[in-house]
């Protein structure tokens, strides 16, 4: 195909696909992502207030709230609830720390039939591995800059 024929073919294909594809509901998707993400963060804030009243403060409080949210993210993933939340909320369920817990737990559950080492342990970080690497690298880089200033 020549350049003009290829371009014409691509345009025809894009018209064909857009005619068959259902329209995206951008406003509804953004609203549901905002609502669910806000709800998850509100639950985290609730735990923060309750643990603050119990006497925790500073790093202990932040760590305890993170552990609780990660636990609930893993639990809901194991029960199959978090996937349904994700289908409804989209990015609203991925952004908070519970989404990270889901991205580690899902492959571990999916590949558990391959054994503990080659299945669960090896596949657990297929999605979240890059996040962990870049997070550690960014933390080291920021630490170096902070020490130099």
Give an overview in words.
With 149 residues, this protein is mainly α. It has one domain (33-148). It is built from eight helices and no strands. The protein has helices at 3-20, 26-53, 58-78, 81-89, 91-94, 97-110, 116-123, 129-148. Helix 6 packs antiparallel against helix 7 (116-123). The longest helix is centred in the N-terminal third of the chain and has 28 residues, at 26-53. The chain is extended and about 70 Å long. The mean pLDDT is 82.
Describe the secondary structure blueprint for this structure:
Layout: H1 3-20, H2 26-53, H3 58-78, H4 81-89, H5 91-94, H6 97-110, H7 116-123, H8 129-148
Beta-sheet strand percentage?
under 5%
| Unreliable residue runs | none
Percentage of helical residues? Answer: over 70%
Largest sheet: none
Radius of gyration: 22 Å
| Extended strand count | 0
- Tell the overall outline: extended
């Amino acid at each position: 195909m020549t350049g003009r024929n290829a371009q014409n073919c691509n345009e025809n294909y894009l018209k064909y696909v857009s005619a068959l594809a259902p329209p995206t509901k951008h406003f509804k998707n953004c609203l549901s992502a905002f609502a669910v993400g806000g709800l998850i963060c509100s639950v985290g804030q609730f735990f923060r207030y309750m643990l603050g009243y119990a006497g925790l403060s500073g790093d202990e409080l932040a760590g305890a709230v993170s552990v609780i949210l990660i636990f609930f993210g893993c639990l809901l993933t194991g029960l199959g609830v978090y996937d349904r939340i994700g289908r409804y909320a989209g990015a609203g369920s991925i952004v908070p720390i519970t989404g990270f817990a889901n991205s580690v737990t899902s492959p571990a559950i999916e590949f558990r039939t391959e054994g503990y080492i080659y299945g669960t342990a090896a596949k657990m970080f297929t999605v979240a591995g890059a996040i962990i690497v870049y997070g550690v690298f960014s933390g080291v880089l920021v630490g170096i800059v902070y020490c130099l200033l």
